[in-house]
Amino acid sequence: MDPIRDQNIGRSPHIPVLLRPLLAAVAPVRGLWLDGTFGAGGYTKGLLEAGADCVIGVDRDPLALELAAPWAGAYGDKLRLVAGNFSDMDRHAGELLDGVVLDLGVSSMQIDQAERGFSFQKDGPLDMRMSQSGESAADIVNTATEQRLADILYHFGEERASRRIAHAIVEQRAEPIVTTLRLAEIVAKCLPRPKPGQSHPATRSFQALRIAVNEEFSQLVQGLLAAERALKPGGLLAVVTFHSLEDRVVKRFFQQAAGEEPNANRYAPVKENTTARFDLVTRKAIGPDDLELEENTRARSAKLRVARRTAAPAKDIDGAALHAPDLPKASNKKGHR
Ligand SMILES: C[S@@+](CC[C@H](N)C(=O)[O-])C[C@H]1O[C@@H](n2cnc3c(N)ncnc32)[C@H](O)[C@@H]1O
After folding, report:
1. Angle between helices 42-50 and 19-26 (to 10 degrees)
2. What is the pLDDT of residues 127-146, one digit of tens each?
3. Helix ranges restricted to H, the chain
4. What are the tens digits of pLDDT across the range 273-309?
5. Residue 286 DSSP label
6. Which ligand 1 atom sits nearest the alpha carbon of residue 38?
7. What angle do CA 59, 329, 138 make, to 5 degrees?
8. CA dihedral in degrees (189, 139, 153, 319; nearest 10)?
9. Ligand 1: residues whose CB is within 6 Å?
10. pLDDT exceeds cutoff 50 at 209
11. Is 59 helix (H, G, I), strand (E, B) or coil?
C-alpha cells in the first residue's frame, strides 16, 4: 500500500449518510443483507450491529475492499466481500435476500484522493473511474465529438452552457487535457464568476463526466431491477441518492413498482393497477436532520427511499420507462471531433 495515499484516506474518513433513519426504516434487521455500495463499510457495519446475520458487501472499487481487509475479518463469516457491480447483485448473492441497501455515488475517500481525479479542488489525473478500469474521463474529454461532450454535460449535469463548454474543450485539447485543474479552469472560463455561497462553476461538468465514465444511470436502473429479482417477498430495498436526477429515477421506479404512478393527464383513462412488486415504506423521501447536517455537510442533498418487496413476479423494464437520463443515440458513438 502507498503510505501517502493511506494518510490521505485517514484524514477524511467517510461518514455514513442517513444511516440512522435508514436503520430505523428497515428495523428489525434480520437475515441476509446485501450492501451494493460497500465504500468504507459504514452501512455494512451498521446493519451487522443492528442484527443482520450476514452482509454481502459489494463494491466496484477494488481499493474500497482492500481498505476493509484489516477489520473485515473480525466479523468472520457474517461478512462476505465481493468486487463487482451492484447491477449483478442477484448473481453475487446466489440466494434470496432479506434486504438490499444502495448508497449511490462516490465515497469521500474517492473524492478526497486527488489521484482518483474526481475533484477539482486538488490537481490530479483526469480519471474518475470507480472500478479503476475502462474508459477514463481524460479519454472522453480528449476523444469524444463536440456533440457527445455537449450531450454528456447537458443530460448528466443539467449544464445549460453545455455547448459553450464542449466547444472550449475541443478548442483547447490540441494539448491533451489530462488534469482535473486544467479542465476545471477551461470550464470556469465559460461561465460567470460564482457569487459567494454558490458552488464552483465546474461542479455540474464534473458530475456529468463522472456519470458518463461510470455509466451510473444504466447501473442504477439495472441495480434496481437486480434488487427486485434478488429480494424475498417481504425483503426491503433502501436507496440513498445524492442529486435530483438520481432521485427521480428511484422515485419513479418505486412508484411504478408499487402501482402508484400518478396519471400525467387527469383526463386520461385510469391505468390498470398491475400487481404491485413493491409496497412503499417511505411515502416521501427522508433527508438529513439538523444534527446530521451539523456533523456532515456532505449529507445536505441526500435522500432516502425505502420499499418492501411483495410476492409478485419481478418484471423487466428499460431505463426509458423510468425516464433515466441517457445520451441521444447518435452521440453514444465515440469519435474524434
Ligand atoms: C457513497 S459510497 C458508499 C459509502 C458506504 N455506504 C459507507 O457508509 O461507507 C459509494 C460506493 O459505491 C461504489 N459504487 C458506486 N457505483 C457502484 C456500482 N454500480 N456497483 C458497485 N459499487 C458501486 C463506489 O465505488 C463507492 O465506494
Report:
1. 40
2. 999 999 999 999 999 999 99
3. 3-11, 19-26, 42-50, 62-72, 89-93, 108-112, 137-143, 146-157, 162-172, 180-189, 203-213, 216-230, 244-257, 290-295
4. 569 999 999 999 999 999 999 999 989 999 999 999 9
5. B
6. 5
7. 50
8. -170
9. 14, 16, 36-37, 39-43, 58-61, 64, 85-87, 103, 105-107, 130, 219
10. yes
11. strand
Which of 59, 109, 110, 219, when mutated, tests ligand 1's pocket best, judged by the most ligand atoms within 8 Å of its CB? 59
Confidence at residue 314, expressed as pLDDT on a 0 to 100 scale:
97
d(CA 174, ligand 1 centre) in Å: 35
Amino acid at 258: A
Confidence grade of residue 97 (pLDDT, cut at 50, 70, 90): very high
Mean pLDDT for the stretch of residues 87-98:
97
Rg from Cα positions in the chain: 20
Query: Measuring CA to CA, how many Å separate 1 from each of 11, 90, 93?
Result: 16, 32, 29
Task: Measure 28 CA to ligand 1 centroid, in angstroms.
Answer: 24
Lowest mean pLDDT among 99-113, 122-136, 191-205, 267-281: 267-281
Residue nearest to atom 27 of ligand 1 (CA): 39
Answer yes or no: is pLDDT of 163 > 70.
yes
Size (the chain), residues: 337
* pLDDT for the residue numbered 102: 98
- How remote is the CA of residue 57 from the centroid of ligand 1, in Å? 10
CA of 106 to the centre of ligand 1 (A): 6
